[in-house]
Amino acid sequence: MSPGLLLSVLLGVTLAALLADGLRRGRRRDAVRRLAAGRRMNFGRTDTLQLTPRVARHFPAPGAAALRVCDVVYGADGDAYRYVFTAEYTLGVTGAKRRHTRVAAFTEPRDRRRGGRSELVLGEEGTPLLEQYAALVPSTRASAHGAPATHLAPEELNGA
User: Fold this and answer.
1) Are strands 65-77 and 42-44 parallel, antiparallel or unpaired?
2) Helices marked H in 3-153 — which ranges?
């Protein structure tokens, strides 16, 4: 095989992998957006609420580095604000470093003079991200008319 052909094949495989990863992330993002809408919460693809510095200070994994917050589901929950998001981070100080992706959540009071925020909770390791979101986002929320919002199970997220 000539070097030019080998380079072309490698570039093609790399582009196919990037495209597949982009499609997978897009489908997951759409499912999380539907989950947020079904539970009367807001969705942000990026960290527009600037949660990363607050999360990094209290992140429960020792030695976590290069923390990135994305796919944020947020809203008012009684007298508190609730945030549920994807946390991507690297673990490993010496030797192999590994990138991890988990869903995390915390709440903070609407009136910041009333006290601090809740402990940061991570979704169960090894569980698919959509199931972690479904477990950490409140299952029902009252609408403006007092009726509970629709509960979406992870199976419904995948097929909707």
Assistant:
1) antiparallel
2) 3-38, 52-57, 129-136
Torsion sign (Cα): 109, 113, 116, 122: positive
Residue 147: both structure tokens together = 């009726």
Domain segments of the chain as ranges: 3-159
Read off φ and ψ for residue 85, nearest 5 degrees: -155, 165
What's the pLDDT tens digit per position in 39-83? 999 999 999 999 999 899 889 888 889 999 999 999 988 888 999
User: Mind listing the pLDDT tens digit for each residue in 119-135?
Assistant: 899 999 999 999 999 99
List, in order, residues 6 or more apart from 49 with CB less than 8 Å away.
72, 74, 83
pTM for the model: 0.78
- Cβ-based neighbours of 40, under 8 Å, separated by 6 or more: 75, 141, 142, 143, 149
Instruction: Report the C-alpha gap between 101 and 30 in whole angstroms.
Output: 17
